Amino acid sequence: MSRELNREMPERRQIKMTTAKLHPLQKVLESRIAIIDGAMGTTIRTYGMKEADMRGERFKDANKDLLNNGDLFSLTQPEMIGDIHRRFLEAGADIIETNTFGATSISQSEFFVDDPREHGGRKDPEFYQKIIDDKFLGDLAWEINEQSARQCREWADRVANQSGRQRFVAGAIGPLTVSLSNSPDADDPGFRVVTFDQVKTAYAQQVRALIAGGSDLLLVETIFDSLNAKAALVAIREVFDEDAKELPIMISAAVGRGGETMISAQTIEAFWNAVENAKPLSVGLNCSLGPDLMYPFLEELSEKANVAVSSYPNAGLPNPLSPTGFDLNPEDMARFLGDFARGGLINIAGGCCGNTPEHIAAIAKALEGKAPRPIGRARAEVAA
């Protein structure tokens, strides 16, 4: 009896897998190239916000400068953040990201906790355990994530109802301000300022808050350090298992000119091998490089991965004389990402640093009607 049952189980599992309902975004990705939004930080700068605008009444007595803590604007200037979401959606974005790139207790501590190195101490696991246990930082991180997701949700649903096209909220999970892969001490290469479990705990809190706020997806993005990303993916998996709720996962790495992740130095193939077991909806590259430099690495990823591939590069190289701080204009980004589409490389496209709603509008127009990359098998298999 047990042997017969064991023989039947794989078949039953296969039936369940093949008849399972596809996520709505998966359906979109199989029919056309989806558009993801542009750079929140770049667009915020166009509003001319000052330190007092960031602080508002709530944080007016903060001891450290807060202006570069862009995630905090979700609490102090929600109308501005909502307006940015609206503009990206009206530009054609199918997916908008929450304003939570640095919304963990670990990253927020940079703005609210004195650096012990300024007083002869050092940042180490003991220091970061205090950060993890700090109620103010934990509550703040939760609030930023939940409120930002709610703001995204409101505008995604509003524009979807107006346009008749579903829009999706991606809970943005950034790379942190600490590294699990490298030691900051050249004389002690085994030293790490933080532990894997501490990073995982911070990410788990962020994940739960993003889900509570109504995110459709979770996006682990701008991966410099693959071990940090691994902690985020483990945290996501544990939250899914413990809370009995599961969302699609998007994964996106930042690579340098040699095509390796910038801290952990993994090649494209090694990076994909490291994250494949998370069974992401998509994998891709963002930030770090302009689209011209990104092309060969995106081509390699497209050949290796058997899931959807995303690309949202910087608008070229930094240029302080440019209005956006980067070289490429909307028409330039549209041309380069059009090349990605013609090369059969992408299923999701958008822009990172330097990309405003105008850039996204140009990209969306250029990719309209372009065929998406086939999903389910790598390009090399399709070519064969």
Briefly say what this structure is.
The chain has helices at 2-19, 24-31, 40-45, 51-55, 73-76, 78-90, 105-112, 125-133, 135-163, 196-212, 226-243, 268-275, 291-304, 330-342, 357-367, 379-383, and strands at residues 34-35, 95-97, 168-173, 217-223, 249-253, 282-286, 308-312, 348-349. The chain is α/β, with parallel strands linked by helices.
What features would you describe in this structure?
By secondary structure, this protein is an alpha/beta fold. The chain has one domain (32-383): Homocysteine-binding-like domain (TIM Barrel, Alpha-Beta Barrel), CATH 3.20.20.330. Helix content is 48%, strand content 9%. It is built from 16 helices and 8 strands. Strands 1-8-7-6-5-4-3-2 form an 8-stranded parallel β-sheet. Helix 14 links the parallel strand 7 and strand 8. It starts with a helix and ends with a helix. Mean pLDDT is 91; it is low at 1-20 and 378-384.
Descriptive keywords:
single chain; 384 residues; alpha/beta; TIM Barrel; eight-stranded parallel beta sheet; 8 strands
Strand and helix layout:
Elements: H1 2-19, H2 24-31, E1 34-35, H3 40-45, H4 51-55, H5 73-76, H6 78-90, E2 95-97, H7 105-112, H8 125-133, H9 135-163, E3 168-173, H10 196-212, E4 217-223, H11 226-243, E5 249-253, H12 268-275, E6 282-286, H13 291-304, E7 308-312, H14 330-342, E8 348-349, H15 357-367, H16 379-383
Helix pairs in contact: 6-9, 6-15, 7-9, 9-10, 10-11, 14-15
